[in-house]
Amino acid sequence: MLPAVVGRHDAALVIRTDFGHAAAWPAVRAELSRPWCDGDLEPQVHVVDDPAWDGASADDVIAAVRADEELTVVFLADSTTMRGHGHPLLAVAVLTRNDCASDEEFEAAGGTVRTVPAGIEDIHANLSIANLDFADVVDAARTDPAGIFRSF
Q1: Are β-strands 12-16 and 148-149 bridged in parallel, bridged antiparallel, or unpaired?
Q2: What is the pLDDT of residues 25-64, one digit of tens each?
Q3: Is residue 91 part of a domain?
Q4: Backbone CA torsion sign across 114, 149, 63, 51
Q5: What are the beta bridge partners of residue 145?
Q6: How are beta strands 112-115 and 89-93 bridged, if at all?
Q7: Which of 43, 60, 130, 149 could disulfide-pair with 56, CB 3.0 to 4.6 Å?
Q8: Residue 137: which region, alpha, beta or left (left: phi > 0; alpha: psi -120 to 50)?
Q9: What is the Cα–Cα distance from 54 to 51, expressed in whole angstroms?
Q10: Whole-number mean pLDDT of the chain?
Q11: 65 forms bridges with which residues in the sheet?
Q12: How many angstroms separate the CA atoms of 78 and 76, rounded?
């Protein structure tokens, strides 16, 4: 069983799920701490760096954080993050098909997408205020040749 996560609703939640590539973690942390919005805003990131999460899948994480009804997205620092150029995190919508009235609603609000570390602030901020939905994030990522969200 995964440990409980007490996040902050003013901060993007990042959970480290790969502990096999320790040398990459400082670079990921450095990227997460860089100012965003043209350097005008300090990042608001809550990082969970607990080996109990090692190997946790997106589904495992969703099940563990679902009790927080205000949480709309969680970001995973997984093996792809640690090995990938630019350290793309996995953005996971905290929603299951059972939470939705229809497949269309789930398509608009659920799923996963890769994002550069600087993109988590854009995603978190827009989803938190319901300015956009997760489908907008996925659509923005489709414009990138690598399929990675970079910004709106």
Answers
A1: unpaired
A2: 999 999 999 886 666 778 789 999 999 999 999 999 998 9
A3: yes
A4: positive
A5: none
A6: antiparallel
A7: 60
A8: alpha
A9: 5
A10: 89
A11: none
A12: 6
